[in-house]
Protein backbone atom coordinates (compact mmCIF):
# COMPACT_ATOMS: atom_id res chain seq x y z
CA UNK A 1 0.00 0.00 0.00
CA UNK A 2 1.30 3.48 -0.84
CA UNK A 3 2.13 5.71 2.10
CA UNK A 4 1.03 9.12 0.86
CA UNK A 5 2.80 10.77 3.81
CA UNK A 6 6.20 9.49 2.72
CA UNK A 7 9.03 11.95 2.02
CA UNK A 8 11.93 10.93 -0.21
CA UNK A 9 15.34 12.45 0.50
CA UNK A 10 18.14 12.61 -2.08
CA UNK A 11 21.60 13.44 -0.77
CA UNK A 12 20.68 11.53 2.36
CA UNK A 13 24.25 10.54 3.29
CA UNK A 14 25.62 14.09 3.10
CA UNK A 15 25.82 16.56 5.96
CA UNK A 16 22.54 18.35 5.23
CA UNK A 17 20.76 15.12 4.35
CA UNK A 18 21.74 13.45 7.61
CA UNK A 19 20.47 16.41 9.65
CA UNK A 20 17.19 16.40 7.72
CA UNK A 21 16.76 12.64 8.24
CA UNK A 22 17.17 13.10 11.99
CA UNK A 23 14.46 15.76 12.09
CA UNK A 24 12.03 13.72 10.00
CA UNK A 25 12.71 10.59 12.06
CA UNK A 26 12.16 12.46 15.33
CA UNK A 27 8.85 13.73 13.95
CA UNK A 28 7.89 10.14 13.07
CA UNK A 29 7.45 10.97 9.42
CA UNK A 30 8.14 7.97 7.16
CA UNK A 31 11.15 8.59 4.95
CA UNK A 32 12.72 6.95 1.92
CA UNK A 33 16.42 7.81 1.96
CA UNK A 34 18.15 7.46 -1.40
CA UNK A 35 21.78 6.43 -1.72
CA UNK A 36 24.11 4.90 -4.28
CA UNK A 37 25.94 3.05 -1.49
CA UNK A 38 24.01 1.21 1.23
CA UNK A 39 27.21 1.05 3.30
CA UNK A 40 26.78 4.77 4.00
CA UNK A 41 23.26 4.34 5.37
CA UNK A 42 22.59 5.36 8.97
CA UNK A 43 19.93 3.50 10.96
CA UNK A 44 17.10 5.76 12.12
CA UNK A 45 13.51 4.94 13.14
CA UNK A 46 11.09 5.33 10.25
CA UNK A 47 13.83 5.69 7.63
CA UNK A 48 13.96 3.13 4.81
CA UNK A 49 17.07 3.17 2.62
CA UNK A 50 16.93 2.42 -1.09
CA UNK A 51 19.62 2.35 -3.74
CA UNK A 52 18.95 4.47 -6.81
CA UNK A 53 20.99 6.00 -9.59
CA UNK A 54 19.98 9.51 -10.67
CA UNK A 55 21.01 8.58 -14.21
CA UNK A 56 18.52 5.67 -14.21
CA UNK A 57 14.89 6.84 -14.30
CA UNK A 58 13.57 3.34 -13.61
CA UNK A 59 15.38 3.19 -10.27
CA UNK A 60 14.20 6.73 -9.52
CA UNK A 61 10.56 5.81 -10.12
CA UNK A 62 10.91 2.91 -7.70
CA UNK A 63 12.45 5.19 -5.07
CA UNK A 64 9.71 7.80 -5.49
CA UNK A 65 6.75 5.42 -5.52
CA UNK A 66 4.19 6.57 -2.94
CA UNK A 67 6.02 9.75 -1.97
CA UNK A 68 4.12 12.97 -1.43
CA UNK A 69 7.26 15.16 -1.24
CA UNK A 70 10.90 15.07 -2.31
CA UNK A 71 14.05 16.79 -1.08
CA UNK A 72 16.53 17.10 -3.94
CA UNK A 73 20.23 17.52 -3.21
CA UNK A 74 23.19 16.06 -5.07
CA UNK A 75 26.85 16.86 -5.62
CA UNK A 76 27.80 18.85 -8.70
CA UNK A 77 29.42 16.86 -11.50
CA UNK A 78 29.41 16.71 -15.28
CA UNK A 79 25.94 15.08 -15.46
CA UNK A 80 24.37 17.25 -12.74
CA UNK A 81 21.65 18.88 -14.86
CA UNK A 82 20.49 15.65 -16.50
CA UNK A 83 20.47 13.77 -13.19
CA UNK A 84 18.50 16.40 -11.27
CA UNK A 85 16.08 16.84 -14.17
CA UNK A 86 15.58 13.06 -14.17
CA UNK A 87 14.44 13.27 -10.54
CA UNK A 88 12.04 16.10 -11.38
CA UNK A 89 10.54 14.14 -14.28
CA UNK A 90 10.25 10.97 -12.19
CA UNK A 91 8.58 12.98 -9.42
CA UNK A 92 5.99 14.23 -11.90
CA UNK A 93 5.35 10.71 -13.18
CA UNK A 94 4.89 9.47 -9.60
CA UNK A 95 2.44 12.28 -8.76
CA UNK A 96 4.70 13.82 -6.11
CA UNK A 97 2.95 16.88 -4.70
CA UNK A 98 5.96 18.98 -3.68
CA UNK A 99 9.67 19.04 -4.53
CA UNK A 100 12.18 21.03 -2.46
CA UNK A 101 15.49 21.71 -4.21
CA UNK A 102 18.65 22.85 -2.46
CA UNK A 103 20.38 25.24 -4.84
CA UNK A 104 23.32 27.61 -5.11
CA UNK A 105 23.06 31.01 -3.48
CA UNK A 106 24.01 32.59 -6.81
CA UNK A 107 22.17 30.22 -9.18
CA UNK A 108 21.88 31.73 -12.65
CA UNK A 109 21.45 29.77 -15.88
CA UNK A 110 23.32 32.53 -17.74
CA UNK A 111 26.33 32.51 -15.39
CA UNK A 112 29.76 31.90 -16.94
CA UNK A 113 30.60 29.85 -13.82
CA UNK A 114 29.74 26.16 -13.84
CA UNK A 115 28.16 25.65 -10.41
CA UNK A 116 25.78 28.65 -10.49
CA UNK A 117 24.93 27.91 -14.13
CA UNK A 118 23.95 24.26 -13.71
CA UNK A 119 21.87 25.03 -10.62
CA UNK A 120 20.19 27.83 -12.58
CA UNK A 121 19.43 25.45 -15.45
CA UNK A 122 17.79 22.95 -13.09
CA UNK A 123 15.83 25.73 -11.37
CA UNK A 124 14.50 26.84 -14.76
CA UNK A 125 13.52 23.27 -15.65
CA UNK A 126 11.78 22.81 -12.29
CA UNK A 127 9.85 26.08 -12.60
CA UNK A 128 8.79 25.17 -16.13
CA UNK A 129 7.71 21.66 -15.15
CA UNK A 130 4.57 22.74 -13.33
CA UNK A 131 5.55 20.62 -10.32
CA UNK A 132 4.80 22.44 -7.04
CA UNK A 133 8.20 23.29 -5.63
CA UNK A 134 10.30 25.33 -3.23
CA UNK A 135 13.88 26.37 -3.99
CA UNK A 136 16.30 26.88 -1.11
CA UNK A 137 19.39 28.80 -2.20
CA UNK A 138 22.11 28.43 0.40
CA UNK A 139 24.87 30.88 1.17
CA UNK A 140 28.32 29.82 2.40
CA UNK A 141 27.96 27.03 4.96
CA UNK A 142 29.65 27.08 8.36
CA UNK A 143 30.27 23.34 8.31
CA UNK A 144 32.62 23.85 5.35
CA UNK A 145 35.06 25.07 8.00
CA UNK A 146 35.16 21.54 9.44
CA UNK A 147 37.98 20.10 7.41
CA UNK A 148 40.98 21.93 6.04
CA UNK A 149 40.28 25.07 8.08
CA UNK A 150 39.63 23.32 11.41
CA UNK A 151 42.57 20.96 10.84
CA UNK A 152 44.83 23.95 10.27
CA UNK A 153 43.58 25.59 13.46
CA UNK A 154 44.18 22.36 15.35
CA UNK A 155 47.73 21.98 14.02
CA UNK A 156 48.97 25.57 13.72
CA UNK A 157 46.43 27.83 15.45
CA UNK A 158 46.22 29.52 12.06
CA UNK A 159 44.00 29.18 9.01
CA UNK A 160 44.37 30.39 5.45
CA UNK A 161 41.70 31.85 3.14
CA UNK A 162 41.63 34.14 0.11
CA UNK A 163 38.62 36.35 0.86
CA UNK A 164 40.62 39.30 2.21
CA UNK A 165 38.53 41.33 4.64
CA UNK A 166 35.33 40.59 2.74
CA UNK A 167 32.25 39.51 4.65
CA UNK A 168 29.65 36.80 4.14
CA UNK A 169 26.59 35.79 6.19
CA UNK A 170 27.49 32.12 6.64
CA UNK A 171 24.66 29.72 7.45
CA UNK A 172 24.71 26.60 9.64
CA UNK A 173 23.64 23.47 7.76
CA UNK A 174 21.49 22.54 10.77
CA UNK A 175 19.44 25.65 9.99
CA UNK A 176 19.25 24.66 6.32
CA UNK A 177 17.98 21.22 7.35
CA UNK A 178 15.46 22.79 9.75
CA UNK A 179 14.18 25.07 6.99
CA UNK A 180 13.90 22.10 4.61
CA UNK A 181 12.02 20.14 7.30
CA UNK A 182 9.58 23.02 7.85
CA UNK A 183 8.96 23.56 4.14
CA UNK A 184 8.51 19.82 3.49
CA UNK A 185 6.12 19.24 6.39
CA UNK A 186 4.09 22.48 6.18
CA UNK A 187 4.35 23.39 2.48
CA UNK A 188 1.31 25.72 2.23
CA UNK A 189 2.71 29.24 1.86
CA UNK A 190 6.09 27.99 0.63
CA UNK A 191 4.82 26.48 -2.64
CA UNK A 192 6.57 27.92 -5.72
CA UNK A 193 8.75 30.21 -3.58
CA UNK A 194 12.51 30.73 -3.75
CA UNK A 195 14.37 31.54 -0.53
CA UNK A 196 17.97 32.70 -0.10
CA UNK A 197 19.24 31.30 3.20
CA UNK A 198 21.93 33.23 5.08
CA UNK A 199 23.01 33.78 8.64
CA UNK A 200 21.79 36.87 10.48
CA UNK A 201 25.18 38.64 10.36
CA UNK A 202 27.85 38.98 7.68
CA UNK A 203 31.33 38.35 9.10
CA UNK A 204 34.88 38.18 7.81
CA UNK A 205 37.61 35.71 8.71
CA UNK A 206 39.29 38.05 11.20
CA UNK A 207 36.04 37.93 13.17
CA UNK A 208 35.89 34.14 12.91
CA UNK A 209 39.48 33.90 14.17
CA UNK A 210 38.55 35.99 17.22
CA UNK A 211 35.52 33.81 17.96
CA UNK A 212 37.55 30.59 17.69
CA UNK A 213 40.21 32.18 19.91
CA UNK A 214 37.61 32.96 22.56
CA UNK A 215 36.21 29.42 22.49
CA UNK A 216 39.65 27.78 22.65
CA UNK A 217 41.13 30.37 25.05
CA UNK A 218 44.11 30.51 22.69
CA UNK A 219 45.03 32.93 19.93
CA UNK A 220 43.99 31.80 16.46
CA UNK A 221 45.13 33.83 13.46
CA UNK A 222 43.62 34.30 10.01
CA UNK A 223 46.32 34.40 7.33
CA UNK A 224 45.08 36.00 4.08
CA UNK A 225 46.09 34.33 0.81
CA UNK A 226 46.15 35.89 -2.62
CA UNK A 227 43.72 34.48 -5.15
CA UNK A 228 46.72 33.16 -7.08
CA UNK A 229 48.00 31.25 -4.04
CA UNK A 230 44.56 29.82 -3.34
CA UNK A 231 44.09 28.76 -6.95
CA UNK A 232 47.45 27.02 -7.02
CA UNK A 233 46.65 25.14 -3.80
CA UNK A 234 43.26 23.98 -5.12
CA UNK A 235 44.80 22.83 -8.39
CA UNK A 236 47.60 20.97 -6.59
CA UNK A 237 44.95 19.26 -4.44
CA UNK A 238 43.41 17.83 -7.62
CA UNK A 239 40.34 20.06 -7.88
CA UNK A 240 38.94 20.24 -11.44
CA UNK A 241 39.41 23.49 -13.33
CA UNK A 242 35.71 24.42 -13.36
CA UNK A 243 35.57 24.11 -9.57
CA UNK A 244 38.74 26.17 -9.06
CA UNK A 245 37.35 28.89 -11.33
CA UNK A 246 34.04 28.94 -9.47
CA UNK A 247 35.48 29.04 -5.95
CA UNK A 248 37.99 31.76 -6.85
CA UNK A 249 35.13 33.83 -8.28
CA UNK A 250 33.21 33.37 -5.02
CA UNK A 251 36.25 34.57 -3.06
CA UNK A 252 36.77 37.51 -5.43
CA UNK A 253 33.15 38.58 -4.96
CA UNK A 254 33.57 38.38 -1.18
CA UNK A 255 36.80 40.41 -1.32
CA UNK A 256 34.92 43.06 -3.29
CA UNK A 257 32.08 43.31 -0.76
CA UNK A 258 29.53 41.65 -3.05
CA UNK A 259 28.78 38.73 -0.70
CA UNK A 260 27.83 40.63 2.47
CA UNK A 261 24.07 40.41 1.91
CA UNK A 262 21.82 39.18 4.73
CA UNK A 263 18.27 37.85 4.33
CA UNK A 264 15.63 37.18 7.01
CA UNK A 265 14.53 33.89 5.41
CA UNK A 266 15.88 31.53 8.09
CA UNK A 267 14.36 33.57 10.90
CA UNK A 268 11.07 34.07 9.05
CA UNK A 269 10.63 30.36 8.33
CA UNK A 270 11.90 28.96 11.64
CA UNK A 271 10.57 31.68 13.93
CA UNK A 272 13.95 32.00 15.65
CA UNK A 273 17.30 33.62 14.89
CA UNK A 274 19.78 31.84 12.65
CA UNK A 275 22.63 30.04 14.41
CA UNK A 276 25.51 32.38 15.22
CA UNK A 277 29.18 31.66 14.55
CA UNK A 278 29.67 31.72 18.33
CA UNK A 279 27.15 28.91 18.82
CA UNK A 280 28.55 26.97 15.87
CA UNK A 281 32.12 27.20 17.17
CA UNK A 282 31.09 26.16 20.68
CA UNK A 283 29.15 23.18 19.34
CA UNK A 284 32.10 22.00 17.22
CA UNK A 285 34.90 23.12 19.54
CA UNK A 286 36.49 19.66 19.59
CA UNK A 287 37.11 19.91 15.84
CA UNK A 288 39.27 23.00 16.40
CA UNK A 289 41.13 22.00 19.59
UniProtKB/TrEMBL annotation:
Span of domain NmrA-like: 4-234
InterPro entries, alphabetized: Ergot_Alk_Oxidoreductase, NAD(P)-bd_dom_sf, NmrA-like
SUPFAM superfamilies: NAD(P)-binding Rossmann-fold domains (SSF51735)
Protein known as: SDR family oxidoreductase
Species assigned in the record: Chryseolinea soli
